[in-house]
Amino acid sequence: MKKVVVIVGGVALAPLLLIAPVAVALVGATNAQATCDTGAQGVDTGAVAAQVESILNGGDGGGVSVPGLTSPKEQIPHARTIQATGVAMKVPVRGQIVALATALQESGLRNLDYGDRDSLGLFQQRPSMGWGTPEQVRDPVYASTKFYEGLLKVSGWESMTVTQAAQAVQLSGFPDALHALRHVEAHPDDAYHLCCRRPLDVARLLDVLVSRAGRFSVDFFLPSAQELIPRAVPWLHRAVTVFVNLSEYRLLAEAVDISALPELVITDGPRGARVLVHGAPKAASAPPVPVDGEVTGAGDTLAGTYLARRHAGADPDIALSAGVAAASAHIRSLPLPVPTPLVTHAVHDARPTDGSFRCTTSPTDCSPPMTGS
Fold first, then answer.
1. Which helix (H) or strand (E) holds 191?
2. pTM of whole model > 0.70?
3. What are the angstrom distances between the C-alpha of 237 and each of 153, 160, 165, 259, 349?
4. Do 3 and 351 meet the contact criterion of CB atoms below 8 Å apart?
5. pLDDT, tens digit, for every residue of 163-211?
6. Would you give the distance in Å from CA 25 to the centre of its chain?
7. Closest CA relative to residue 176, chosen from 147, 210, 208, 152
8. Domains of the chain and any CATH numbers
């Protein structure tokens, strides 16, 4: 049976520094062959291997034309540095291949002084994530050394595909991100619900869900919505359902064309909820019993129940009524105790037997109470 898996951003679930699958064998191995899908253009990795090998053997690499390797006099010296660093560190040939594949995908083997947020250098390493100072991560030897150190710490990297090993290194500072990525890869047929919270790297995890999972939905948390909604915009049109409260909806409407969203659920605290399908009203529901306000968790209860019903085949109006009723019951019930030590995150299998759903998130998301969560 397919499951609905909820990923709660109580800690950084930050997959996928590599945007597209990579499996590149460049140097140190004969008959190097692989594929690299960059989305915009393919890279003939057999030709890349021939060019790199030629230059490593003393040539200039100018006799081979390779899409994606357009400046060999700039790029090949970096490839040589990456390989030489690996040799000096006694990293096996396959590890050198992983490093070269990563640098090719991340920067095109260029020592970039820009990138996503504070990403820099050959491997697009982020100083804010502990890879080093900006000057250090732009030093090819230092950057290569840090990459190899990360690779050698990955248990079983030798038996991984090049793509998996590269991802594991780039996520080495985010064990929960790696766990989430592996779950998605192992269960691509599950439906996923992403609770966007700080310090979640929303863009990278959404990229994983778009590329690996068949169905996913998202919601936001008002204190971080202004920051995270813009980061999520490129992927929101691929979400089955987006959940926002009224305040978050205003932020969303400024960032994205609402008509591009397949299904949008908007809650308004104790005043009920409505569903828009490609921007057009589809359903509305008010609480069956008047309530005084909304406590944290009611929004999660509504979203989880709505998704469970929709996953079972219910129409939006039926699913929304069930969700609103479950959220109302949640408000009137006693709050769940916070366990000690503090829970940092939770992943739930949302297969309720009674059509309702309750989600426990991290204490950082449970305090203070927010109206219209």
1. strand 191-195
2. no
3. 37, 32, 30, 9, 24
4. yes
5. 788 878 877 656 556 667 777 777 878 888 888 887 677 877 787 788 7
6. 26
7. 208
8. 4-14+174-366 (3.40.1190.20), 22-170 (no CATH)
